[in-house]
Design brief:
This protein is mainly α. Helix content is 49%, strand content 11%. Strand 1 and strand 2 form a beta hairpin.
Length: 190
Amino acid sequence: MANSAEPSSSIDFTSSSYVSNGTISYNIPPASGSQGGSSVEIISLRKLSYNLEQLLVDSSCDYSDTELVVENIPVGVHRCILAARSKFFHELFKKEKKAFEKEGKPKYCMNDLLPYGRVGCEAFLIFLSYLYTGKLKPFPPEVSTCVDNVCAHDACRPAIDFAVELMYASSIFQVPELASLFQVSTYNSV
């Protein structure tokens, strides 16, 4: 018999737009023909994405086992997720596995991980969110909104700097699909 504290295994959703701010609603179109299980799979993947995102945004879910310090701000992360999604982190954690067992929760400084450039905290949080959820979050207002009404905003310094930081993180941490997703997202918004 199922424990009453466990979530129900029956799925009955009627809406689908996932907003990456902690809210979720589902609006899955009905499955047609041979794609019978695809709606359930989509719902399951969205729920997984949402649950993994909670590990980043919900302070009551702090089960992190490593800290990355970005611009003097400690960010709790989970080695298993980063190692599964990034070859860079996989190699880094594999190389230092014995140190984890002896020293406890390891801490890395972003400046030590990046040889030639910088990734700011906001860009890194967008990058982390992608690693955890597989979704590209909207950019912060200060890089996605321009005060100049005639600006196309594709050449503003804050927007360019943010895009460069995100692409640099994608390159150094070896997550090439993020660069592709970012390019598609940018192309579709023009």
